[in-house]
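Hi everyone, sorry if this is the wrong subforum. Our group has a chain we'd like a structural model of before ordering constructs, and none of us has done structure prediction before. Sequence below.
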Amino acid sequence: MRETFNFCAGPATMPYKVLKEAQAELLDWQKQGASVMEVSHRSKEFVALAKECEADLRELLDIPVNYKVLFLQGGGLSQFGLVPLNLLGDRIGDGKTTVDYIETGIWSKKAAAEGARYAKNNILYSGKEEGYISVPKQNEISPNPNSAYLHLCSNETINGVEFFYDIKNSPIPVVADMSSNILSRKIDVSQYGVIYAGAQKNIGPAGLTLVIVREDLLGNASPYVPDALNYTLQAKNDSMLNTPPTFAIYLMSLVLKELKEKGGLEEIEKLNHKKAFLLYNTIDNSRLYRNRVDVDARSNMTIPFTLADPTLDALFLKEAEENHLINLKGHRSVGGMRASIYNAMPIEGVIALTNFMKDFEDRHYS
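Answer:
Right subforum, don't worry. Here is the predicted structure as tokens:
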């Protein structure tokens, strides 16, 4: 285990075991005499790796057979525009097509702003006025059956709110940005039309974007979508239309195997609940620390908190680093602190953080 615990929101900490394994075979992968970064993506060895990686992902998430798994580039942010470009086809800019958005934080707000370039926005819910501290209840969501699809961000990394349910039986496809909580718990993939995720939180390193798309939604791309980012073309070519992010796929394959070794998502979810409880319990039983998010919407992945005395912020961060707890500074748009405790953060890291927080409060806030 590392001596330093990295609470960075992304690119985030990677599993120690995965990094050690990658280090051991970095110069010679599968006795190829070359690094995995140096072999052809079309070689039989790498193709086998990519297929095994997809199979492990399908097993962990229980992905139905009528869904395609794509390994793309461009990051999660690019999907804010690529989703409409791939789903709306010749309806883009016709002045009639609407897309439903649920706005629960800064990332879903950005997605809606980008989507407005291609279709009319129909904001079903916005938490902006209250400061993005909640998500709507299941019975509060009424998708417009005439909209093309419904978009949401299942975990807001900046604001610290998370959906803990799948929207059931929507009359239109549900599109979810799961960049920061995918693989953290079990989900019902069949309730979604598209799931996308940047890799750099729970999947692997930055540079890989995962897209899971229901087959009946393929074939609707705008002619202006670049081939390399066209869902339909990439699905037909097993994500090998162009050179994929090979090293990121390799690391993802190692991450998935570790998740399986730990008992799959059922066990991972239990551990994530335990880690989050430890940190929230420390905050809630403190005079110094505050978290404003509604209890039933509090993220298990990204936990923002503020200090009652903000003049202590700089000292908190300085002493945290001295105690080998790094990257706890909150996002510039909201300030305060933020602890990102994705899958790869061991519970020992959360214990170390909570112990430090209690000690810091005892010494500096009486």
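For your construct planning: The chain has two domains: 15-260, 262-362. The longest helix spans residues 264-284.
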